[in-house]
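User: I'm curious whether this sequence folds into something compact or stays loose and floppy. Could you predict its structure so I can see for myself?
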Amino acid sequence: MLRHTVATLAYRAGKAVRGAPEGFGDFPAGEGGRTAVQILAHMGDLFDWALTMVDGEAVWTDAAPLPWDQEVARFFAALERFDARLAAGRPLANAATKVFAGPVADALTHTGQIAMLRRMAGAKIRGESYFRADIVTGRVGLEQAPPRREFD
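Assistant: Here's the prediction. I'll summarize afterward.
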């Protein structure tokens, strides 16, 4: 179930970051809030952390945000490393429920924030019936199946 959740995150995050307009990464939610690229960098950090959690270290690192396209690539690379570790079948040093409750659930929340920032920046993404989405365990890169049922 954890791997499918990561695939679901990849699908939703991919939709939120793909096709973002030039300069979107610097768009802030408001005074004192994180910019879109800062949120995305944090999401990459979450999965770097998750990877250390499953191996028993739980080491947190704050990475300096990269330019938007590079940060998108870094985030999906982190998802791919994490999913590969889960797919290897080796025992997890921390319970899957704890890994879910920490970095995975946090990244789901931040995906919603990026989608909301897109709307605020005038570049909204279309709503979708995620129940009908073609989400496949193990498909965790930026390239995802096209939406099956979107709506405005």
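Summary: The chain is about 55% helix and 5% strand. Residues 2-19+44-135 form one domain.
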